[in-house]
Amino acid sequence: MPTLLPQSHRLLHVLRALSAVALLSARAAIRSRVVAILLLLLAAGVIGIPRLVCGDGTPASELQVRLRYTLAFATGVLGLATLWASCAAFGAEIDSRRMDLTAVKPAHPLTLWFGRWLGIVLLDALLLLGVVAGVRLQLGFGAADTSRLVSRAIARPSLPAPEEEARIHFAELQRANRLPPDIPPTEILRRLTFESRHSHIVLHPGEAAFWRFTLPRPVTPDGRIWIRVQFNTTADSLVDVRGTCRVRRAGAAAWAAEAKVNDLTRNELEIPLAAPALAGAREIDLDFAYQGEPKAAALLIAPRDSLAILCAQGSFTGNLVRVMLAELAILAALAALGLTLGACFSFPVAAFAATALLLTVLAATGSSPEILPVDPSAGNSRPGLPERVSYRVVRSIDFITRPLLQPEPLAQAVAGERVPTGELTRLLLWGGGLYPLGLALLAATALRRRELARQGTGN
Fold first, then answer.
1. Are 302 and 223 in contact (CB under 8 A)?
2. CA 348, CA 363: separation in Å to the nearest integer?
3. Which residue of 55, 342, 406, 443 could cross-link 402, Cys pair, CB 3.0 to 4.6 Å?
4. CB–CB of 255/187 below 8 Å?
5. At what angle do helices 347-364 and 316-344 cross, to 10 degrees?
């Protein structure tokens, strides 16, 4: 009876098998010239996009082109290549009977799956690192304005949770007997939560609004912060927004700094302030006084969406590394999906299914799952079957993909925002852990069944 290996020897054996399969997968990709073609495409994108795509001439537009467009192009190219290459890793080998050469070796299906997944992810990491390095070099040497290459923590106003506001509004409607009788209470609560999340306040000329912010880190010793705000108006035309923003430590009597606002657009404004009195503060009060003409249109401010305070944290290069890790988590999830589809189906079917799933996710991403806001005075009828089915499909896709697609690290980097550690950890956990693990178990079951079917037919 063979003796059992110690646990450490077993683990070492598994790690050796994983590294061997990963190395074989990487070598196969290099021999097939896939990596060479990807290198050419990525280099063309990094060098060509900033020269072919023109912005509006502002530093923000230049950063958008050089950073967001270039990295989005690179991630898209790598995503498609990863998806199809991972589909072929199992599907093409099984179709061409080359899988039999691997099956005769004492390798567990999970070892084969994770080894090939690691090989693909390693190649993606190296290629993505080259793209990020190229983008950083271009931004450092070719950018007209390097003052926007910053990394800042962002804080939103301290407000009640949208769910809490929705429950309060629901209770008020219920006491007033104004709940629509033909809409389920859960649906009303969901819609009220959506409205609370995007609610706004109305400011007329001569009025002021006040908010308190809790920062994720203390203000730097120079007291430098940025106020980000966007104004909408009740009028259809542009309005000359005149007012004053003031900041102070929470609860302090004197204001630490103030800045004048004179905006004739509806763009998002960033107002820099330097107030040494705020050094080390974690809670800041912000006051805005609307000083428009008496007959000027009222302002609409959505605090949760269009109001924030930013303070310096980390470096721009470090934030780019965070963006790279976030994009790599998405590529790792695509590799896991392709490998599992390749284990379940032939290569043509797996490639078609992967492409169809990707297009479906892209079409559903960003679409609002809400149907209509609640109007208690109107008799909103219950949606029909097609609308309910469509809603459920969109909600399901959004629920499955939200852990990977809900944060927008590229948009955050362009805006000078540091990718939060919590968001990055969640991306890596889902894209590099939970999704691959669940898909690997499904693929291992499919490979065992295909092996049994092959043995049953005498092949």
1. no
2. 22
3. 406
4. no
5. 130
Considering only the top CATH level, what class is 199-312? mainly beta
Contact 317, 113 (CB under 8 A): no
CB 308 within 8 Å of CB 316: no
Give the mean model confidence (pLDDT) for residues 40-65. Answer: 85
- Report the range of poorest mean pLDDT among 6-20, 81-95, 200-214: 6-20
Torsion angle in degrees (nearest 10) through CA of 231, 236, 239, 245? -10
**Cβ partners under 8 Å of residue 241, min gap 6:** 231, 233, 261, 262, 263, 264, 290, 292, 299
Identify which has the larger pLDDT, 294 or 130: 130
Return the sign of the alpha-carbon dihedral for residues 174, 176, 180, 182.
positive
Facing residues of 244 across strands?
A: 260, 289
Tell me how far apart the alpha carbons of residues 271 and 17 are, in angstroms, rounded to a whole number: 56
CA-wise closest residue to 266 among 238, 234, 235: 238
- Phi, psi values for residue 107, rounded to 5°: -115, 125
Q: What is the pLDDT of residue 372?
A: 41
Query: In whole angstroms, what separates CA 168 from the centre of its chain?
Result: 31
Which residues in the chain are classed under CATH 2.60.120.260?
A: 199-312
The stretch 202-208 carries a mean pLDDT of 92
Residues of the chain with pLDDT > 70: what percent?
85
Q: What are the residues whose beta carbons fall under 8 Å from the beta carbon of 437, sequence distance 6 or more?
A: none
What residues have CB less than 8 Å from 439, skipping those under 6 apart?
Answer: 336, 337, 339, 340
pLDDT digits (tens, 9 = 90+) for 415-442: 999 999 999 999 999 999 999 999 999 9
240 phi/psi in degrees, rounded to 5: -75, 105
